[in-house]
Amino acid sequence: MSVTVILIPGYLNSGPDHWQTLWQLVFPQHVRVRQLDWNHPRRQAWIEGLHAALHCCQGPVVFAAHSLGCTTVAAWCRQAEPDVLRRVRGALLVAPPELERPDCLPALHDFQGIPAHPLPFPSRVIASSNDPYSSLAASEQLAKAWGSQFTLLGAYGHINGESNLGTWPEGQDWLRQLMVSPA
Asked: Are 104 and 78 in contact (CB under 8 A)?
């Protein structure tokens, strides 16, 4: 059975030049999480959005999350049913935000208190050395707390559309590695 990729955008969704949007154009079979409100995110509503996307597909899945989408994955794991959790092969967690910093956007405050527990599936946190929304130390700390492999991409800002990654072949390679992880 093939593995379905679930794209989980962050705050404000992923724009036209974002690697998630470009992946969806190249791979239209990928499922993209839809949130009711991208501008005023609420943790529980976003968890429910992820849950709804999971129920739209059958079989094993792998997550490709960006920014607040990474936090959504961690929070969802705390509520997910065991049979649904077992379907997740892995998660690519790109540029998770540092939500506890003093300059955190007020719109994101509902997500503060990031679950800092090991994820129940293989994962890789990808960070940038100059992410305006997270320090490198905070990204490394989250990766450790989540039991994730940590990868420093380099100086790519928030690893979004402004990073000019295009379809980001290296990210696709990391995603494929997670797709073949044992369930």
From this structure: no
Full-prediction pTM beyond 0.70?
yes
pLDDT in tens, 122-159: 999 999 999 999 999 999 999 999 999 999 999 999 99
The CA-atom distances, in angstroms, between 22 and each of 19, 97, 99 are 5, 22, 27
Residue ranges making up the domain that contains 11: 4-179
What sign results for the dihedral spanned by CA atoms 154, 155, 160, 163?
negative
Q: Compute CA distances 174 → 26, 69, 132, 150, whole Å.
A: 17, 17, 23, 12
**Domain containing residue 51: CATH number:** 3.40.50.1820
Q: Domains in the chain: how many in total? A: 1
**Residues sharing a CB contact under 8 Å with residue 107, sequence separation 6 or more, in sequence order:** 11, 39, 40, 41
Secondary structure E strands in 38-129: 61-66, 88-94, 123-128
